[in-house]
Design goal:
17 helices; 414 residues; mainly alpha; 0% strand
Length: 414
């Protein structure tokens, strides 16, 4: 049977998919939904296989003809688009839209809203927030409504990719192409995930998205991860900026090599894909600048290096504006309120042994990872706490200090 092969064809899925499929009493509908799931996983797999040659585009972009890079990427992009088109074609054939279904909106916002999880970024289940206007719809019609809505979003993104790649291909610089592929990989993945969740959501209300796709990340989770990655990079670039103030060439060279390596790792992280185009270009330009300065025949010029690092450091500080995103404001407020309530509960529990308080402090500092980047004072306190080599001498006093930091941070959230 088709549905019995889902787990082997999509190793990253869970037994939950099989369980959901087995609840569909109509054998024909079960087979069709199972095929949608299979095609969706194939599309997600091909999207993941698009290998973006970061170092070539960002550091060695002038070493080879741009056409070579385009030719290398083309098979992977075409394979992903091909499987997406197979998915859309099957949806069109097997799940025609119900006659009373709402018309497809020109704006994806309403459909994107269906994918937004709660303020903490935890999955809220597969059920769509779309209002069912027809309570008498059959299960097949319910699936068809969801698939045509999310499929329409997916189709529009595929068509949009064609136009955007055409524009990027005609640019002299290669970074627009890299950016468009980054953007497309993220947007198309989200849309395919929506199709997958829509296909299964008609048959369950308690399955979480992470149970279906372990790699799934909500908008809040993505923003939290991006902020933490940027905060970490900001810290290290800031240290480099300070160190270069009076460094010699002999000292500066290994520092630049280390930072270049850190930037390469940052650019390879999933969070990097969610940067805005202009922010991504700033990272690319800085990597290119470091690459060019490091490979000057006359040696590493310190003055241009200092100017470049100082400018990029200021750019990263300006990226703190990410904290104004509504998704992060809601997330941080909820998380900090929960943490503060927990701290107050511990402090009101009466006299506790030092080792008990220390154990809780360890857990508390770990939990505050979810708000890294919100308050530099909290971030620095975390670094110092994690770097310690001995247990705190007065853990209860330290816990009071942490409560003050959490309260202060909560006030800045609004």
């Amino acid at each position: 049977m088709v549905e019995s092969s889902i787990a082997s064809q999509a190793a990253s899925s869970s037994q939950k998919i099989e369980d959901i499929l087995q609840t569909i009493s109509d054998g024909g509908l079960r087979e069709d939904v199972a095929k949608v799931v299979r095609l969706a996983f194939e599309a997600l797999g091909n999207l993941r296989r698009i290998h973006l040659p970061q170092d070539h585009f960002e550091e060695g972009g002038n070493d080879r003809a741009a056409d070579d890079a385009h030719l290398e990427l083309a098979p992977y992009v075409l394979a992903a688009v091909s499987t997406i088109n197979q998915l859309l074609g099957f949806i069109s054939k097997a799940f025609p839209a119900p006659a009373s279904a709402a018309e497809q909106s020109d704006d994806d916002f309403d459909l994107e809203f269906d994918l937004v999880d709660g303020p903490t970024g935890d999955g809220v289940g597969l059920s769509s927030t779309r209002q069912q206007e027809e309570s008498s719809w059959t299960p097949r019609e319910q699936v068809a409504d969801a698939l045509n809505a999310f499929g329409g979003m997916l189709r529009s993104r595929v068509l949009d990719l064609s136009e955007r790649l055409k524009f990027a291909r005609n640019q002299k610089d290669s970074w627009p192409l890299l950016n468009e592929l980054d953007e497309a990989q993220h947007r198309l993945t989200k849309a395919v995930q929506a199709v997958l969740f829509g296909a299964l959501g008609a048959f369950t209300t308690d399955a979480r998205r992470e149970e279906i796709l372990p790699a799934y990340r909500s908008a809040a989770a993505e923003a939290v991860a991006l902020r933490a990655a940027v905060a970490e990079l900001t810290f290290h670039i800031g240290r480099l900026n300070v160190a270069l103030a009076d460094a010699t060439v002999e000292i500066a060279v290994p520092l630049v090599v280390a930072v270049a390596d850190r930037l390469a790792r940052f650019s390879a992280r999933p969070e990097y894909r969610t940067l805005r185009a202009e922010d991504k270009k700033a990272v690319i330009d800085f990597r290119r600048t470091l690459h060019d300065l490091r490979h000057r025949r006359e040696g590493l010029p310190l003055v241009p290096l200092r100017h470049a690092v100082e400018g990029f450091s200021k750019f990263l500080e300006a990226m703190g504006a990410i904290n104004h995103r509504e998704v992060l404001i809601l997330h941080d407020k909820q998380r900090l309120q929960d943490i503060l309530a927990e701290i107050n509960g511990v402090l009101s529990a009466g006299a506790l042994a030092d080792h008990v308080v220390t154990s809780y402090l360890d857990a508390l500092v770990g939990r505050l990872q979810v708000v890294v980047g919100r308050n530099p004072e909290v971030d620095q306190a975390r670094r110092e706490y994690l770097a310690r080599t001995t247990s705190p001498k007065e853990p209860i006093g330290l816990l009071h200090q942490w409560r003050g930091l959490v309260e202060m941070t909560l006030m800045t959230v609004g």
